[in-house]
Amino acid sequence: MPLSSKLPHIGTTIFTVMSRMAAEEGAINLSQGYPGFGADPLLLDLVGKYTREGYNQYAPMAGIPQLRKVLAEKTKLTQGYFPDPELEVTIVSGATEAIFSAVTAIVRSGDEVLVLEPAYDSYEPAITLNGGTPVYVPLRASDFSVDWEKVSAAISSKTRAILVNSPHNPSGYVWTEGDLEQLAALVRNRDIYVVSDEVYEHITFDGIRHISLGAHPELKSKTFVCGSFGKTFHVTGWKIGYCIAPENLTAEFRKVHQYVTFSTVTPIQYALAEYLIHPDRYLSIPGFYERKRDVFVKGLEKTGLHFSPSQGSFFQLASYGHLSQVSDRVLAERMTRELKVACIPTSVFYSDKRDDKIIRFCFAKEEAELQEALRRLGGLGSIL
Ligand SMILES: Cc1ncc(COP(=O)(O)O)c(C=O)c1O
């Protein structure tokens, strides 16, 4: 009996495709968004310690109290507000789970959910699987800032939620205070919730500061803030993140979370709880990545590609439409096979696969690897 797919339009993600091709071709993989270097050995030792000491059974459903408390303290230090660790903080299995559980908690059949695109690929399936309809609003092509008039025009009586992401993947755009005010004005007096994907909260550059929606006096009452320890501490394979939301929203969120995963990997929670006690371990992250961004954009200047230096995240976009009209997918493939550098075509981040001739690089790699990739990109002219 053929299984009628609930997600007939979804195939293997481009991230898997490009990473596989990069491996086959022996290419430097600047496609998928994961760090090419190890975590702090101290953090690894802590995981070893807690596994050996027997912290290997189910954690409490909402996360261990120590980690929730230290996360609330981090939030106070970096964002100026202290979420209640008991009632407003939940530890989950990666930001992907946080987003899925938040969307599942609020979206019902027939609801519309606004998605600003280009967008991370997990948003749409989360909405669709819950019977909702994604309503896409394009970001401004010039700098990927939000066109608030377009967002306002997309709101209808069916709008149940809006999914936002800052620092933004793939563009690196970081929301300003003005953006938060515009969003607050739009959802004021409306039953619209906000799911805020803030996985790159600690990766911003040039003195730009990430402002969490949870820190906004009005937005905080309607927002699920989704974060990722995996992204912050170079351990994406650990799949551990969190959701901060007001008590009433957290109560509904946890009802979903407890049946999606029930709880999240125990020894890693203990390790993170101890590791996070020292703020320099996350306060040093922006400088660490800014050096990599600087190395990468300095080299990129010599390639003939057009770009504005990324404001945040570990991604850099670059456009090539002034050099060639080849499709971004074809170019990404040629770069992988012929130059041995893999990247991501940004058309994949759009629902209509619109091709603006822009590619995305991940610069979360060792400097020597970035330099070698840049050297290889010197041959770009030969494949355009
Ligand atoms: C914007 C964005 N949100 C969420 C995630 C997923 O985070 P996690 O690995 O914690 O599930 C990613 C990972 O690439 C991402 O780029």
Automatic annotation (TrEMBL):
Q: Where is the Aminotransferase class I/classII large domain?
A: 51-377
Determine if Cytoplasm is one of this entry's keywords. Answer: no
Identify the domain of life. Answer: Bacteria
Enumerate the SUPFAM superfamilies for this protein. Answer: PLP-dependent transferases
Q: Name one GO molecular function term.
A: transaminase activity
Task: Give UniProt keywords alphabetically.
Answer: Aminotransferase, Pyridoxal phosphate, Transferase
The coiled-coil regions, if any, are none
- What does the record give as cofactor? pyridoxal 5'-phosphate
Do you know which Pfam families this protein is assigned to?
Answer: Aminotran_1_2
Protein name (Swiss-Prot/TrEMBL): Aminotransferase class I/II-fold pyridoxal phosphate-dependent enzyme
The species this protein was found in: Algoriphagus oliviformis
